[in-house]
Amino acid sequence: MQNLTHQPPHPPQAPRCAATLREHLSSLPALQHTASNHPMLQDWLQHMLTEAAARNQVMLSWYASRADGYLLGMSFNSKRGVTGELLELGQLCRRLSAEAGQ
Question: For 48-60, what is each residue's pLDDT tens digit?
Answer without folding.
Answer: 999 999 999 999 9
